[in-house]
Amino acid sequence: MIYAMAHMRERKLRVVFAKKLRQWPVLCVFGPRQCGKSTFLRELAFEEGSSAYFLFDRQAVREEARRNPELFLKRAGSGGPIPIVLDEIHKSPNLFDEIKSVIDSGAKRPGQFVLTGSVRFSKKIGVRESLTGRAGSLQMDSMSLAETLGKGVTVDLSSLLRYLERGGMPAICFTREADVRQEYWQGWLEKLCEQDLKQFSRGRMESDLAYEAIRQCCLLEDPCAATIAKAIGQDSRRVLNHLDALVDLFVLRRLEAHPKGVGKTRFMPFDCGLAQFFGAPLFRRLQIAFFHHFVNERTYAGIETRGQLTYYRHPKGAAFDFVIGGRHFVRILDKVGPGGREVQKAEGIVGRIPKSRLTFLCATDENLGPLGDKIAALPWRELVPLVLGR
Q1: Alpha helices in 77-206 (DSSP H)
Q2: What is the pTM of this model?
């Protein structure tokens, strides 16, 4: 029962999903495996009887679509409800050209199809060409802190710590038993590395290397391709190929370096529960949660995110975990507040960039307030308002 309740929680993307569905003939919903895409589209996104749903994890559905894609789509839409939801459609790629024909013959009427996938369609040339100009996209993710708490519940340090331990995957984010969560993530990783990655790369990727790359992304302070390759003793180009594939499977996200700092692209896991599985420290899990919430909360609030989140590292070693919009520096602390010397050093670096400011996120429930003209200290629970720019 607890699993069903977790899956049935309201998801914040519902409003932007409905908006995009009114704008595009095809709406593609992407996201990592088991983040709740299927449940959202079956149970939450539409009124009962107002959509038709087909899951391509089922062999019978795949076979029917393979034998005659034109007939499959005609039967799916013959006088029935729209949109037609084709879940995990990348497992039947022959349908994409047929969908293009249906859309073009229907004058690109909005809201005809919803397609989901656990891999980016843009990596498949035929898919990209078929959907060009016809499809909008929306990324779904594991549940945010606010989604796990429900409406009207105040975030405090204890609820944030619980989220940092359990993560936001619907199947286990309310599960108290640590061993159950560990077993879940082990099975999730095995399916990802042995099944999804192999299918996506047509056997070119190594499951053991992918598994170890994910582990290092959870644990390393500077998880770029070179440091990951060094940690696992592999060629950096081969490691980068695996990292890129894991980005396309929505397991990792890229975090670029600030243009005025130094450093290479970092690769961040999508969920702090995955990092907990590998034994990542609390500080690291909060970094992952911050990135997760920045991408998702701003997307669902209709705030443009592309190119707006980076990290900063000074050539002499000083670093900030994130920079929002190029000017708002964020440093996450695993203590109550920054020391005087920390503030002084940070102020000197931030002061070199016009109109910049700095926020320390601190491990406390207390509001610490301003520490200067450009520097403030906030408790960890202010993570969501901070990523929304409030």
Answers
A1: 95-105, 125-131, 145-149, 157-166, 178-191, 197-201
A2: 0.90
